[in-house]
Design brief:
10% strand; 4-stranded mixed β-sheet; 232 residues; 10 helices; globular; Glutaredoxin; alpha+beta; Glutathione S-transferase Yfyf (Class Pi), Chain A, domain 2; binds glutathione
């Protein structure tokens, strides 16, 4: 029997883990990390993730404590630990990982940068252009895949759970780019799942904490958070 503590904020890389925990019927404590005040660089947090980023998942069981960072590794661990959503059979498992890694290596960084360069600064047409072009390339690929298959790896899996919150976030900034039929069908099917609704409700309690934390963050703290200056 395991219990979980998830360290995070209201960002897509955290939401995907909340969805997985809900889909797997696990209970978990949520520890909000105030990234605007730099909690992720405090020694207690760096002991959990030396890279200073959320999410981190700690599992407690009779076998002892087990701590993991990097959301893709966490998703893969949860799927294997509970024997669900990781693909049935070797081939299927490989395809789940293929789409999970695709999200991790491509969509996360690209969508994040497309949002950052388009909305967090007015000074970077080069960055806007570069990341919006790459974002649209990835969205086209995703649309083609979902036109051929109900879910990314065939059956609903951690790969879909990993991408879905990123599409949800992208919708706040690039809704016009997301109106393609297969993507819409896939998005609605996942949104309708009770576990996903439960995850959204849980995250609704976290969003205001981020907003409040950002409101009181100093310009120096925001510079650090956005990676515009190095941490001391
Ligand atoms: N590849 C990492 C990315 C994690 C990440 O970028 N976390 C952000 C929030 S979504 C964060 O902690 N930012 C604070 C910082 O970098 O100082 C993962 O998927 O876990």
């Amino acid at each position: 029997m395991q219990t979980y503590t998830l360290y995070g904020m209201g960002s897509p890389n955290v939401v995907k883990v909340v969805i997985a925990l809900e889909e797997l019927g696990q209970t978990y404590d949520f520890v909000h990390v105030n990234v605007f005040q730099g909690e992720q660089r405090e020694p207690w947090f760096l002991a959990l993730n030396p890279n200073g980023k959320v999410p981190v998942l700690v599992e407690r069981s009779d076998e002892g404590d087990f701590s993991l960072f990097e959301s893709g590794a966490i998703m893969d661990w949860l799927a294997r630990r509970h024997g669900a959503f990781g693909g049935s059979g070797d081939d299927q498992q490989a395809h789940v990982r293929q789409w999970l890694f695709f999200q991790m290596a491509n969509c996360g960084p690209t969508f994040g940068n497309a949002i950052h360069f388009s909305f967090a600064t007015k000074e970077a047409p080069y960055g806007q252009n570069r990341f919006q072009i790459e974002m649209r390339k990835q969205l086209k690929l995703i649309e083609e895949r979902l036109a051929a298959s109900d879910y990314l790896a065939g059956e609903y899996s951690i790969a879909d759970m990993a991408l879905w919150p990123w599409i949800r976030t992208l919708e706040m900034f690039f809704a016009d780019d997301l109106q393609t039929p297969a993507l819409r069908r896939w998005f609605a099917a996942i949104e309708a799942r009770p576990a996903v609704q439960a995850a959204i409700a849980r995250m609704d309690t976290v969003g205001p904490l981020d907003k409040d934390a950002r409101k009181v963050a100093s310009p120096e703290q925001l510079d650090r958070y956005f990676g515009r200056v190095a941490w001391p």
